[in-house]
Amino acid sequence: MTCLRPLPLIALTLATPALAQASGEGEQIVVVGEGLPDTPAEPAYSVREIDREAIVTVPSGRIEEALGAVAGFQQFRRSDSRSSNPSAQGVTLRALGGNASSRALVTLDGVPMGDPFFGYIPFAALVPEQVGSIRVTRGGGSGPFGAGALAGTIALTSADIDTLGAVTASALVNDRGETEASAGVAARLGRGYVTASGRWDRGDGFRTTPADQRVAASVPAAFDSIAGQVRAVAPLNETLELQARLLAFDDRRTLRFDGADSSASGQDASLRIISRGSWQVDALAYVQARNFTNVVVSATRFVPVLDQSNTPATGIGGKLELRPPVGEDHVLRLGIDYRRSDGEMQEQAISAFTGQVTARRRAGGATSDLGIFLEDDWTLGRLVLTGGVRADRTAITDGFFLETTPAGTPTIDNRFADQTDWTVTWRAGALYRASDTLSLRAAGYSGLRLPTLNELYRPFVVFPVTTQANAGLRVERLEGFEAGIDWRPAEGVAFSLTAFDNRVKDAIANVTLTPTLRQRQNLPAIEAQGLELGARITRGQFSFDGTLAYTAAEVQGSGASLALDGNRPAQTPRWAAAATVGWKPFDGGLFALTLRHVGAQFEDDLETDVLPAATTVGAYAQVPLTGKLVLVLRAENLTDETIVTRNAGGSVDLGAPRTIWGGLRFGF
Q1: How far is residue 620's CA from residue 581's CA, in Å, rounded to a whole number?
Q2: How far, in Å, CA of 618 to CA of 68, rounded?
Q3: I need a labelling partner for 280 at 20 to 30 A (CA). Which of 164, 249, 358, 408 fits?
Q4: Residue 19: pLDDT above 50?
Q5: Would you tell me how many other CB atoms lie within 10 Å of the CB of residue 138?
Q6: 211: Cβ–Cβ under 8 A, 6 or more apart, which residues?
Q7: What single DSSP character describes residue 450?
Q8: Which residue from 136, 469, 107 is spatially nearest to 288, judged by alpha carbons?
Q9: pLDDT digits (tens, 9 = 90+) for 344-366
Q10: Is 365 part of a structural domain of the chain?
Q11: Quick check: is 591 in a domain?
Q12: Structurally, how many domains does the chain consist of?
C-alpha cells in the first residue's frame, strides 16, 4: 500500500468549494438541502433516529457502529469495513437471515447505495463526518425504491453547511500506528452553498487469525481507504431547489494471508430537484460506477489460486414523486422509480502447484426494477391513517457464464433464460395519539427483493467451502405486521416497544450440499417474530440511549432443504442490544461509554459451527482546548473481548481487539 495514492483525491475534493464566491454577509440562506418533509404517518412504523452527535462520536469512528445503535441492525459478518471482505457487507434488520446481500434499503440523500453487482453497502464511502442524520425504519415496504426495502430502510442525509461550518478537520492515531484523517470545507454560493470533504483511513491492521492457527503466511488485516464527496445546493426560485452530489471512494484490504488482497472502488453522481410549492415534487436521477477485485489464497499451500481481477458494474436509476394539494387532512404521494444494475465478473483460476492460469471465467447479466407507487396519509384529529400500494416490474436478463482454457477455447458456455414478472406490494398503518405523552401504532406491509447478479451468476470460494451461484433464483417476498407503543412521560424521556411478525418467502440462502459445497437456493420461507425496545433519557448533564431486540427466527424447509426445517437461519442472533451513556460536564466536553451485544449465532445453515455471543464496551471523550479545537480520545473493545467473526469447521477469524485512539478535531 502506498501513502501517496489518496493525496490527489483529497486535494481535488477540498479545493472545489474554495473556487466559489461567498454571498454577502448577513444574507439569509433559505435552502435546507433536504428532501420533502416527513409525512404525518411516518411514526406509524418502527422508526429510530440517529442524530449527528451520535454519528461522529462512536468509539470506532465507523458509520456501521453508529448504525449499530439500533438493535437488530446486522451485517453479514461481525467485522466492520476495515477487516472484512467488501462483498460480505450486506445489511439486514430484524434477524431475517444473513447473507452477503442487503435485505435493507440504504440510501444517501435518496440515492440507493447498494452495490449494483453484489448488493453490499460500501461503508468506506459513507463517511460519518459527511452525514447529518440517519433514520432507520424497521419493517418491509417503502414508497420510492420499495423493491429494496425487504427488511426496512436506512436513510442517511448529508450534513448541511450550518452543521458542517466553514472548515472541519480531524486527525487521530491508534496504539497500532493506524491513522484516520478527515477534512472538509464549505462556502455559500448566493443563496445556496457547496460543501466538500474527504477522509483517509489506513493501517497495518490487527491479526484476525487466532494465535494457534497462524502460519508463516498469516498477516494482519491491513486496510487503506479514501473517500471524498462534493455536494452543491442551490435555489432556482422561491420554492424550487437543485441538489447535486459527486462521490468517489477507493478501499483496499488484506485478509488473513499474505497476498489475499481485495479492493472496492466507485464513483457516484446524482441530481435532485425539490419543489416545495403547492405541488410538491422530488425528482432524482443517479449513476454509479463500481468495481471489485479479490485474490483467493489457498489455506493449505498459501499461494494464490483464484484472481477475481475485475468486476465492473454500473447502476442507474431515478424517481419522480408528486404530492398534489389535496387538502390539509391528506398527504398524497404518487410516483414512479427505476433501477437497473449490470455487471460482469472476470476471474482466472490458478494452479496451486505451478502458479499458471488453468481457466478463465466471465459471468454476469442485468437486473432492473420499474416501480409505480401511491400512498395517502389521512389525519383525523388524533388518528392518522396511512396506506399505499406498489406495482413492480422486475427483470433478470442477459445472464451468462463462460469458462475458457488459458488459450481462450470455451469449455463452458451457459446462456440463461430471461425472467420478468409483475409484483404488487402494499403497506398500511395507523397512528393514534392517545394523549400528549402516549402514542399507539400498528402497521402491516409486504415487500420484495431481486436476487443480485452475484447470487445469480458468481460462485465463490472461502476455503475449504465452494459456494455455487444459481441463475434460477426467484424474487424474495416479505409479508409482515407489527404493533407498538411510544411513551414520553416527561421532557427528555422517551420509551418505545414494538412487537413484530415477518415472513420472507423464497428467502435466498447458502444451502449446504456436501461438507465442502454449498449453493444459493430459495428456501420456502424464513419466519421471524420478536420484540424491540428503546429508551432515551436526558437529565441535565447525563443522557442514556438504548435499544434491545429479541428475535425468534426459523427456516421453513422442504424438498432439497427439508433438512433445514426448523433451524435458525445462518448468521442470525436471537438477542441484540446497544446502549450509550453520556456525560457533558462542561461546554464542549463529552464523555461516553457504549455497549454493544450480539447473541450467539450459527455460521452455517446446518447449525454445526457456532459464533459465540460477544459483548463489547467502547469509550469516547472530547475536551475543548481552544476555540473550535478539541482533544479526542476513543477506545474500542475496552475489555478486549474475543469476537469470533467466522467459524468454518474450526477455522476462525476474529474481530477488532482493544484499540486506543487519540487525536485532534477542529470545527465540529
Answers
A1: 10
A2: 13
A3: 164
A4: no
A5: 25
A6: none
A7: P
A8: 107
A9: 999 999 999 999 999 999 999 99
A10: yes
A11: no
A12: 1
Radius of gyration of the chain (CA): 24
9-18, 531-540, 659-668, range with the lowest pLDDT:
9-18
pLDDT at residue 29 is higher than 50: no
Going 554 to 555 to 558 to 562, the CA torsion angle's sign is negative
The yes-or-no verdict on residue 167 having pLDDT over 50 is yes
Q: Return the closest-CA partner of residue 367 out of 416, 315, 425, 318.
A: 315
What is the pLDDT of the chain when averaged over all its residues?
91
* Lookup: cell for 627: 476555540
When pLDDT is cut at 50, 70 and 90, the band that residue 206 belongs to is very high
Question: Is the sign of the CA dihedral 98, 222, 650, 648 positive or negative?
Answer: positive
CA distance 467 to 601: 20
Calpha distance 13→353 (Å, rounded):
46
In-domain check, residue 179: yes
pLDDT digits (tens, 9 = 90+) for 129-146: 999 999 999 988 888 888
Rounded Cα gap, residues 359 and 405, in angstroms: 5
Give the separation between CA 140 and CA 500, rounded to whole angstroms: 11
Q: Return d(Cα 396, Cα 362) in angstroms, integer.
A: 17
DSSP helix/strand/coil, 455: helix
Residues spanned by the domain of 256: 7-486
What are the cell numbers at 187? Answer: 462556502
Residue-wise pLDDT tens digits, 488-538: 999 999 999 999 999 999 999 988 888 888 899 999 999 999 999 999 999
The Cα 135–Cα 47 span in angstroms is 7
Cβ atoms of residues 645 and 653 within 8 Å: yes
Residue whose grid cell is 433451524 = 567
Would you say 197 and 130 are in contact if contact means Cβ atoms under 8 Å apart? yes
CATH number at residue 111: 2.40.170.20
Q: Residues with Cβ < 8 Å from 161, sequence gap 6 or more?
A: 29, 33, 186, 187, 188, 193, 195
- The burial of 21, by beta-carbon neighbours within 10 Å (0-12 exposed, 13-18 middle, 19 or more buried), is given as exposed
Residue 401 phi, psi (nearest 5): -140, 120
Q: Within a domain: residue 645?
A: no
Burial grade of 30 (CB within 10 A; 0-12, 13-18, 19 or more): exposed
The mean pLDDT value for 109-135 works out to: 94
List the grid coordinates of 13: 475534493
pTM listed for this prediction: 0.93
E strand map for 405-541: 410-415, 419-433, 438-449, 460-462, 465-468, 476-490, 493-514, 517-539
Q: With CA atoms as reference, report the closest residue to 123 among 150, 102, 95, 98.
A: 102
| One-letter identity of residue 603 | E
Q: What is the per-residue DSSP string for 100-160?
A: SS-SEEEEETTEE-S-TTT----GGGS-GGGEEEEEEEESS--STTGGG-SSEEEEEEE--
